[in-house]
Amino acid sequence: DFTSLLLMFQIYQALRIKPKHKFIVSQLLVNKIEECRYHELLSPSKLGYINITTSGVQVTKVANNYKDNIISFYNKLKSFLDENCDICIVPEKLDFIRRTAKSSSKLEFLENAMLAMRDNVWLVSDDLGYNKMLKDGRMKIITTEIYLEKLQYGEKVKEIMLHNNYYGLTLSCDIMYKEYLNYSAHKLNYW
Hints:
By secondary structure, the chain is α/β, with parallel strands linked by helices. Helices cover 53% and strands 13% of the residues.
């Protein structure tokens, strides 16, 4: 799913490695990414954000190159998709929508579930909603952590996941100790 895809993208960028498997993503997801990129291209540059609460007003300025960085991120993500993913249309969703008379408001979610029902395709996701949505047992799901663990990328991947605020990780004593030392020294940490 999209959140796992972003995490994979960050990990492969940080470690400068190429994925061992090609990922399968729906055309709808690629279209959403293109839509976000296009929206950024057309929108005016942001100067900052204002947060108004009962305790006051907080102004947060953004960097001068914020817009360029966002567009660059979308371009890199699109390149990652083009190089490491098979992009496909998911016609199976039409039968499901017609059969259940469900609205199409969660098409991305549905397309990912339909892809996971195909032979030799696993959904890499940490979203439990997939199990609730389709309970017929044909969908194959694996968590991001277990997928990366099976590929034997090592502890560096877990550090990246931890630094990206990924919750529920199984961490080694070394990582926990390192983060505790950073915490004790008042350094940046994820303790």
